[in-house]
Amino acid sequence: MIELEGLTKRYGEKVAVNNLTFAVRPGIVTGFLGPNGAGKSTTMRMMLGLDRPTSGDVRIDGQHYDALKEPLKYIGALLDAKATHGGRSAFNHLLFLAQSNGIPRRRVDEVLDTVGLTSVAKKKAKGFSLGMGQRLGIAAALLGDPRILMFDEPVNGLDPEGIHWIRNLMKSLAAQGRTVFVSSHLMSEMALTADHLVVIGQGRLLADTSMADFIARNSRSYVRIRTPQRERMLDVLHQAGVTVVESGSGVLEVDGSKAEQIGELAAQHQLVLHELSPQQASLEEAFMQLTAESVEYHAHTDEPAPQEWGDGWRKD
Ligand SMILES: Nc1ncnc2c1ncn2[C@@H]1O[C@H](COP(=O)(O)OP(=O)(O)OP(=O)(O)O)[C@@H](O)[C@H]1O
């Protein structure tokens, strides 16, 4: 369990993390979401004792990180995959970490095997691709067989097979009863991996809830209907007091009713249906809806007018 209590971090005038209170529980994968600059990395760094809170507290299984003897046995983390000594081989990098935490040498071989790096164990880390670096970082996180695991953008640089692998790894670590805390900007991936979500914006807590509840609260759900007997269907729905929205190309949309109810109404009136489908917004839509006001860095979609760049680049 990771517990935060009023956790706050200021950098001068900037409040990077603002009074965060939440707990990351064992046995599930908890996703950590927020727009760029929301304070996710700063929060994770404070969890690991790499940054000191301005105020508030964070505890790892009831203890401060600094008080943990051989911390890799309590919490394993992937924060920055490039944070390795490039001149060391993958094996030696892990061996150094293992020795400083009283972890037996054979565990190095085990984690190299788990992450699929056995064949390059003697190669220097500086020659590794982004994906191989991520795997090495994950091996380091697993080294002490910790009860708590934390991953900052773990799928960054991984190929589809690697993404599939890390998803299953995180789920199985949680199924073993471990605490798994993971940040990612890849919403489609998060939707497949996390059971619970903590969402922050501009350093503040915006949501701490289950995945299903988060999507239901922050997006519209409706039933989509297509029928060749559209006018009769509209009459039947109106008579039943159901509010219908007519969207383009003859599709009807009904908020606040279940597909079963509408199907039964249609059957009672012998109406033919070509489609009757419950629609739920994606995690991405729900996330954009919730965080719209706390996004700090907006891209401009309009192309700048040529004169803004000067005309020097133009060909005559
Ligand atoms: N060492 C620092 N000094 C000054 N400001 C900092 C420092 N570290 C972070 N910040 C600021 O704190 C805020 C939160 O940054 P942080 O990196 O924690 O966000 P994030 O949610 O991890 O963002 P991203 O998704 O872009 O990685 C940002 O405005 C950032 O500029």
From TrEMBL:
<keyword id="KW-0547">Nucleotide-binding</keyword>
<dbReference type="Pfam" id="PF00005">
    <property type="entry name" value="ABC_tran"/>
</dbReference>
<feature type="domain" description="ABC transporter">
    <location>
        <begin position="2"/>
        <end position="227"/>
    </location>
</feature>
<comment type="similarity">
    <text>Belongs to the ABC transporter superfamily.</text>
</comment>
<protein>
    <submittedName>
        <fullName>ABC transporter ATP-binding protein</fullName>
    </submittedName>
</protein>
<dbReference type="InterPro" id="IPR027417">
    <property type="entry name" value="P-loop_NTPase"/>
</dbReference>
<keyword id="KW-0813">Transport</keyword>
<dbReference type="InterPro" id="IPR003593">
    <property type="entry name" value="AAA+_ATPase"/>
</dbReference>
<dbReference type="GO" id="GO:0016887">
    <property type="term" value="F:ATP hydrolysis activity"/>
</dbReference>
<keyword id="KW-0067">ATP-binding</keyword>
<dbReference type="InterPro" id="IPR003439">
    <property type="entry name" value="ABC_transporter-like_ATP-bd"/>
</dbReference>
<dbReference type="GO" id="GO:0005524">
    <property type="term" value="F:ATP binding"/>
</dbReference>
